[in-house]
Amino acid sequence: MLWVQAISYAIGMWRRIERYLEDGRYEIDNNWVVNPIRPIAIGRMNYLFAGSHKAAQRAAMIYSLLATCKKNNVEASAWLTDVITKIQDQPINKIEGLLPEKWQK
If you ran DSSP here, which 8-state letter would residue 97 be given? Predict the structure, then answer.
C-alpha cells in the first residue's frame, strides 16, 4: 500500500520533477535554507530550560552576537576575549565599535 502512496506523490509532483531535470539551477532539496536556521530551532527547545525568561533572553543575545561574528567572518573566541577585556573601559557612546561587524583586532 505504501508504494501506491509513493507513486501517487510522484505523479502529483511530476511537473516539478520535469522542471528540476530541465534546469540545473533548481535544487533537489531546500537544505541550503534549513541548515542556517537549524541551530535556532534547536536553541528554541533549549531555551525552555534556561532557568528563567531573563536567562533565555541573555542566551539569545549571545547566540545573536556569535552568529553575527560568523556572518562577518570574525573569529568568535578572539572577538569575545577582546570585547570582555575592553568593554568596561569603553565609553557608552562608542560601544557600537565593539560589535562584531565593526570590531577590529
Answer: G
pTM for the model: 0.54
**CA–CA separation, 31 and 48 (whole Å):** 26
Quick check: helix, strand or coil at residue 63?
helix
- Looking at this protein, which amino acid is placed at residue 105? K
Q: Which three cell numbers stand for residue 75?
A: 573569529
What the block records as the C-alpha cell of 34 is: 534549513
pLDDT tens sequence across 1-36: 789 999 999 999 999 889 989 998 888 888 888 888
Cell numbers placing 95? 560601544
Please measure the distance between the N-terminal and C-terminal CA atoms of the chain and give it in whole angstroms: 62
